[in-house]
């Protein structure tokens, strides 16, 4: 948690060109996934005639609003594979991008509060070990050793009965991750076009040939959707549907405090997760708001619920002052797993459905999505996450590992 120099101001990190008449690939959405995809297309596949279109500013959506947790301890083989690949990329990302992203591998604790929590958690630990993911079961006293400020008493509503621990997991600076990818993509020849909203698609016999935008028509050889909770809107414009629902997801931060919280603690059962940022503010999240919507704020009762849970688990937080809250728009599938691959429209690809866990997948998803776009074939890491699984029934049910705390 040592203080480091602030990075160069974003305005100087990449060019802001006018859109050209056409590109080999157009990526819709300049969040973490879109920027990473553009970088890996240019770096690994030599495709540099690429535009990333963003209706607002670079990384101004969910990338600017998430709680930055990075982990790979998912239950099923398919999920563990792509998230573990992503975590390995995280571990070398600063060297890869030549840019500081403050990846802090402080570990992540997932708490268990009931006997069923314990059974599910131990099962997940064993599954993780079979997949080569670092994971261990810790008892309440070990939880206390990892996070001394946590309350492990038996006189609270949901006593801590233990938890899973992934030592290699952690947090990173989300803005700096986006800036690092944007900087390198721009250096490799990718056009990052801000304030350019996609309003429609140009079709020719079932194939996409361009996009209509607020800055005019742009021709495209391929189009890759990467717009998180707004992907369903774009898919409707293209004439197909994706099985996602968009919900607001809130987060909040406290004022600055001395460093007292050494790891990341998450609890699905009481719907709260907490870490402490590099500067000292407490970063907290909870479950999604139950209603569908695109508002970037949530309802007060969710904040009230998560704060009561946080204060019970961490009595030291009772006098902390809330600084601000915000919301993002998460795209949730019926099996809590992402969608990545081709679409019914020839030349169009989709990457969405990451729910509340898209940030941790940024490097891995961008890497696999770039392969899919460049080769017209899904990589083995994302082959199981295609739209066709909702027809075949081959779902990847990660609700147990990806429900509330993400």
From TrEMBL:
Enzyme Commission number, as recorded: 1.5.3.24
Obligatory cofactor(s): FMN; FAD
SUPFAM superfamilies according to UniProt: FAD-linked reductases, C-terminal domain, FAD/NAD(P)-binding domain
Annotated compartments: Cytoplasm
UniProt cross-references to InterPro entries, sorted A to Z: FAD-dep_OxRdtase, FAD/NAD-bd_sf, Rhodanese-like_dom, SoxB
UniProt-listed GO biological process terms: tetrahydrofolate metabolic process
Enzyme class (EC, first level): oxidoreductase
Catalytic activity field: sarcosine + (6S)-5,6,7,8-tetrahydrofolate + O2 = (6R)-5,10-methylene-5,6,7,8-tetrahydrofolate + glycine + H2O2; sarcosine + O2 + H2O = formaldehyde + glycine + H2O2
Keyword list, A-Z: Cytoplasm, FAD, Flavoprotein, FMN, Nucleotide-binding, Oxidoreductase
Residue span(s) of domain Rhodanese: 25-69
GO cellular component, one term: cytoplasm
GO molecular function (one): nucleotide binding
PANTHER family noted in UniProt: FAD-DEPENDENT OXIDOREDUCTASE DOMAIN-CONTAINING PROTEIN 1, SARCOSINE DEHYDROGENASE-RELATED
Similarity remark: Belongs to the SoxB family.
Record protein name field: Sarcosine oxidase subunit beta
Species for this entry: Intrasporangium chromatireducens Q5-1
């Amino acid at each position: 948690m040592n203080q480091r120099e602030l990075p160069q101001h974003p305005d100087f990190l990449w060019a802001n060109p006018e859109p050209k008449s056409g590109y080999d690939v157009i990526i819709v959405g300049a969040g973490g996934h879109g920027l990473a995809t553009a970088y890996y297309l240019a770096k690994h596949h030599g495709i540099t005639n690429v535009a990333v279109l963003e209706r607002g500013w670079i990384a101004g959506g969910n990338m600017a609003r998430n709680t930055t947790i990075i982990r790979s301890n998912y239950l099923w083989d398919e999920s563990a594979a792509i998230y573990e690949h992503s975590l390995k990329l995280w571990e070398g990302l600063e060297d890869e991008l030549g840019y500081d992203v403050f990846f802090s591998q402080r570990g992540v604790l997932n708490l268990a509060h009931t006997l069923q929590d314990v059974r599910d958690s131990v099962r997940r630990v064993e599954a993780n070990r079979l997949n080569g993911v670092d994971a261990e079961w810790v008892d309440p006293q070990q939880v206390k050793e990892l996070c001394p400020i946590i309350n492990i008493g038996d006189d609270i509503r949901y006593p801590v009965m233990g938890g899973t621990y992934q030592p290699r997991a952690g947090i990173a600076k989300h803005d700096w991750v986006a800036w690092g990818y944007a900087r390198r993509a721009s250096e490799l020849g990718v056009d990052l076009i801000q304030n350019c909203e996609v309003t429609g698609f140009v079709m020719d016999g079932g194939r996409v040939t361009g996009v209509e935008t607020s800055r005019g028509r742009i021709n495209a050889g391929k189009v890759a959707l990467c717009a998180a909770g707004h992907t369903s809107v774009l898919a409707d414009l293209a004439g197909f549907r994706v099985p996602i629902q968009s919900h607001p997801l809130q987060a909040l931060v406290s004022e600055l405090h001395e460093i007292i919280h050494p790891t990341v603690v998450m609890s699905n059962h009481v719907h709260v997760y907490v870490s402490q940022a590099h500067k000292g503010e407490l970063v907290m999240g909870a479950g999604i708001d139950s209603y569908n919507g695109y508002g970037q704020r949530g309802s007060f009762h969710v904040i009230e619920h998560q704060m009561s849970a946080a204060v019970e688990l961490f009595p030291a937080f009772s006098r902390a002052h809330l600084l601000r809250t915000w919301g993002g728009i998460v795209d949730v599938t019926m099996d809590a797993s992402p969608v990545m691959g081709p679409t019914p429209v020839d030349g169009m690809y989709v990457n969405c459905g990451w729910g509340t866990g898209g940030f941790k997948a940024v490097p891995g998803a961008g890497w696999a999505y770039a392969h899919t776009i460049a080769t017209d074939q899904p990589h083995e890491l994302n082959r199981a996450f295609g739209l066709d699984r909702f027809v075949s029934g081959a779902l990847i049910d990660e609700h147990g590992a990806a429900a509330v705390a993400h």
